[in-house]
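Weekly puzzle thread! Below is a chain. First person to post its structure in token form gets bragging rights.
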Amino acid sequence: MALAPDLRRALRLAGALALSALVYWANVRTPPEFRLGILYVIPVLLVAWHDGLAWGSGFAAATTLLRFVIGIDQMPADTPLIARLVNEVSYLAVVGVAITGLSQLRRTQAQLQQLATHDPLTNVLNARAFSAELAQELGRNRRYGRPLAVIYLDLDDFKKVNDVHGHATGDAVLRLVADATRSAVRQADVVGRLGGDEFGVLMPETEGIVAHAAATRLAAGIRTVFRGTPSVTASIGVVSVTGSEAGTDELLRKADQAMYEAKRGGKDRVVQVAL
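Winning reply:
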């Protein structure tokens, strides 16, 4: 079972504290000729990488103090105080540059991960990431026989919106549809953009009747959001499964077929099928 984020952080910080204590013990036990204080850099950088600049700075300050205290005993008695301070300020400056660089690298990595998995226009999952989530959930569905539902949404006559009002308005419509979709489903549900004006919702642990109600709520929400100009509606297909051997492609194909059946039935409606 996965650990809660707060517990994982607490365990990481406890590990960094233990590593710092080990460096302190080694530094105290070894002769002055062995300059082991530099090893404090290891827990400091680990904390900065995993828990951010603030925690890294805190560990840097604490280890600087430990280095200074040990230096009092290990440096020759006639070493000027200013020399000791300069040593520790130099250590702090080097570590500060290192943890700042690591924090920037971590932010860049997070941005790249976001770009790799999310649609940049609507900030929901892209098609590839959505399919990966669906595949993972289908695996659990097969193992434990729990219900699963997928909503497949396609805007009606969206090309007219772009042709009449321009692509900037069309982009704004897509962002509003993504927001309306997130509002209509639960926080645990997964929303993705599957194509130009097509969106999907993965609803784990959800019976078909619940998914149908959510899809109906979503269709009404979109209708309400775009009550003025341009007028926008959506045709929605819903597919529900329990313990099925169906794969990702088959499930999405069934949901897509249900959506097209809604379009053939007059658009702005919900059609549900089961596997």
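Puzzle host: Confirmed. Bonus trivia for everyone else. The two ends are 30 Å apart (CA to CA).
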